[in-house]
Amino acid sequence: MEYKEIKKVYEKQVDTISKLLKSNEFTNLLKNDETLQSNFVDQISLISFFEKKLIDTKLIEKEVKEAKKKKAKPSLIEVKDLNKAESILKEYHKLGCAGSIEELKNINSITDAKDTIKSFDVFLKNIYKKDSNEFINSKSDSSQNEGEATTSRQTFKAEQTSQEDSNQSNSGNFNNGFNPNMGQNPFGAGFNPFSGFNDETSYQAWRENQMATAAYVELGNQIKNGTFYIYKDKPRIFVILKRILGAFMIFLSLFTIISFISLIIVSTSKSGDTTIFTGMLWYDVSGTVQGISTSTMGWITIILTVFLVIYSALSGYRFIVGGKTENELFSFDKRAAIGIIALMVFLSIFTIQNLVLWFPKMDAINSFTSGTASVTDVNGNTTNSNVQNSATAIGAFNVCIWTTLISEILFLLVAIFLIALWRISPRIDDERKKLKLQEIIEEIRKNSNFSQQQ
Predict the structure, then answer these.
(1) Residues 121, 116: Cα–Cα separation, whole Å
(2) Residue 146 has pLDDT above 50, yes or no
(3) Which of 145, 153, 143 is nearest to 35 (CA)?
(4) Best CA proximity match to 264, nearest among 433, 387, 393, 149
(5) Which among 265, 306, 365, 438 is least surrounded, fewest beta carbons within 10 Å?
(6) Which residues contact 144 (CB under 8 A, 6 or more apart)?
(7) Is residue 44 a contact partner of residue 85, using CB atoms and an 8 Å limit?
(8) DSSP letter string over 110-130?
(9) Higher confidence at residue 128 or residue 249?
(10) What's the pLDDT score for residue 170?
(11) Highest-confidence segment of 84-93, 178-187, 269-278, 280-289
(12) pTM
């Protein structure tokens, strides 16, 4: 919303509502019609909504900047003058009418606000045969006008009742109880639009809600198939970095698989006189044979490693290929990025511990052939056993060390690129989305067949 446009609509709305309260014809009707009171309070609430927007610092700053660019004075309303809603409400209460200002949560744009004002005029026109301007400009005898308006309203109710009776006997015509100014009946002949509603206003609110729902569905389809681009820009560097990240993630998946398989081979290898030791590698320290266990993987680590491998491979492929639409190409899932970084940090704790434990002993393990080791069993008994490292275990151990080291480097690169993409990812253009949504709503309203598309 623009400050200047909000100000313009606000001032016009204040003027209209204030003048309506000075119209004897209108106030006489207002005192005796609760539905009219409810609609009128919504119009006062809209004034309150505008007043809150007009003290929004972001909108004010934007207006000031634009004014400076044009070397003009900013068109601002002083805060002390933004109290019209409360003043009008007091005048309204003096008529003996009930109601209070409420927050209008369904107003998201200036177009929504204008539609709310327009719907009030539609209500007046359909019920009393006059809109706001006609009430304000009316100079005829108030008592006569009140009688005519009451007669019109009674006629409307009679037509509505007649139409309901007609529907119950499966006969009649839609337009008998429906104002022709509202468009052709999209539901088929014989359907009473007010059936199940207290009045026409309730029906109109329901109809607008249905159109909004249909518009949201259509906008979602357009975003999905790429006919509507949702972001503010198309940074080329984002696509380049995304594809580089995709390559890193595929390599990460590949090296993690190799590291994982080699670790399984080492941790399941047998050694000792009767191959009684599983997952042990031996080395000599100053004539003393010592062993190191490689069986350090738990089920949680295994499951998370498998998940990382699959996710990295699929994501990497998707990043390199791009997407079917530009929306997919320039999209970035921040929650997924947080999840993958957290997973890599968790697995890094496990792999770094192994590297710190194994890497310093790598040369000693590779040079060890066989020897006698003193081994203590679970009962505390110490025995001497001839031990050796198999060629398969040694080969797998070396592969595991280097691929794990490369995987750690790839972990770091992937994390850096994810953070970089997060920072430069294009932002969704909410304003364009709102305008497009309103455009779709208007198109649905013109076609008058939105209900058949549901």
Answers:
(1) 9
(2) no
(3) 153
(4) 393
(5) 306
(6) none
(7) yes
(8) HHHHHHHHHHHHHHHHHHHS-
(9) 249
(10) 39
(11) 84-93
(12) 0.50
